[in-house]
Amino acid sequence: MESVTPIRPPVTTPMPGKRRPTIRDVAAVAGVSRGTVSRVINGGHWVSPEAREAVELAIRNTGYHANHHARSLATGRANSLAFLLTEPQHLLFADPTFSILLRGAAEALAQRNMTPVLLVAGSEAERQNVTRFVSAGHVDGVLLISSHESEPLIDTLIAARIPTVACGIPLGHSDDVPIVSVDEIGSARKMTRHLKERGRRRIAMITGPSDTGGGRYRFVGYREELGADFDPLLVEEGDYSTESGAAAMANLLERAPDVDAVFAANDRMAAGAMSTLRRAGRSVPGDVAVGGFDDSGLAESLEPPLTTMRQPFGEISRTMVDLLLDLVDGKETVSRTLATRLIVRDST
Question: Is the pLDDT of residue 147 over 90?
Answer without folding.
Answer: no
